[in-house]
């Protein structure tokens, strides 16, 4: 099954949050990783080369292979469950005021590590479904399911 990211990201509206992203696109927008916020000394150092060498990537990819998740994703060519990107808090933004680094990968590290490996190995069509989570200034989250009362 091939997914066309353009159908999920219509137009050129910079305020439209993407629903499908390549791992390299996600890396460009990350402020930190929820599982390992101090893995990278500076958010600007988060790039494909430094991530591939990181302990975080090695551990998550190894666990993904051990559990069979990596094989499932490689066989189907599709990441089915979304990764969660949450907005950065004021504290995180004060450390790195760059608006281009606006998210924290808060869930989906194993899926991300596997998709990253696939992209690095030449699969330029791999995309991750993305759920965006907005953190309010009081560090709480709004109800993310509009169908719940």
Features:
alpha/beta, 7 helices, 38% helix, globular, 149 residues, five-stranded mixed sheet, 15% strand
Structure description:
The chain has 7 helices and 5 strands, in the order αβαβαααβαβαβ. By secondary structure, the protein is α/β, with parallel strands linked by helices. It has a 5-stranded mixed beta sheet with strand order 1-5-3-4-2. Helix 4 crosses helix 7 (109-120) and helix 5 crosses helix 7 (109-120). The N and C termini lie far apart (35 Å). The model is unreliable at 145-149 (pLDDT under 50).
Report the portion of residues in β strands.
5-15%
For the record, give the distance between the C-alpha atoms at the N and C termini, rounded to a whole number.
Answer: 35 Å
Main sheet summary? 5 strands, mixed
What sort of overall outline do the alpha carbons produce when their principal axes are compared? globular
**In terms of per-residue confidence, which ranges show pLDDT below 50 for 5 or more consecutive residues?**
145-149
Mean pLDDT: 77
Task: Give the number of helices.
Answer: 7
Biggest β-sheet: strands ordered side by side in the sheet: 1-5-3-4-2
Count of strand segments: 5
Name the helix and strand elements from N-terminus to C-terminus, one letter apiece: HEHEHHHEHEHE
Helix content: 25-40%
Helix/strand structural class: alpha/beta
Radius of gyration, taken over Cα atoms and rounded to an integer in Å: 15 Å
């Amino acid at each position: 099954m091939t997914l066309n990211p353009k159908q999920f990201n219509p137009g050129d509206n910079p305020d439209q949050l993407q629903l499908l992203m390549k791992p390299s696109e996600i890396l460009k927008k990350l402020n930190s990783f929820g599982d390992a916020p101090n893995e990278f000394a500076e958010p600007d150092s988060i790039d494909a080369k430094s991530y591939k060498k990181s302990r975080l990537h090695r551990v998550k990819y190894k666990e993904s292979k051990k559990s069979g998740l990596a094989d499932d994703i490689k066989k189907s060519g599709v990441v089915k469950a979304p990764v969660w990107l949450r907005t950065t808090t004021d504290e995180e933004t004060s450390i790195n005021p760059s608006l281009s680094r606006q998210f924290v990968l808060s869930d989906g590290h194993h899926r991300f590590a596997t998709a990253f490996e696939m992209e690095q190995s030449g699969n330029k069509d791999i995309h991750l479904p993305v759920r965006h989570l907005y953190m309010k200034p009081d560090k709480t989250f709004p109800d993310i399911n509009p169908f719940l009362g």
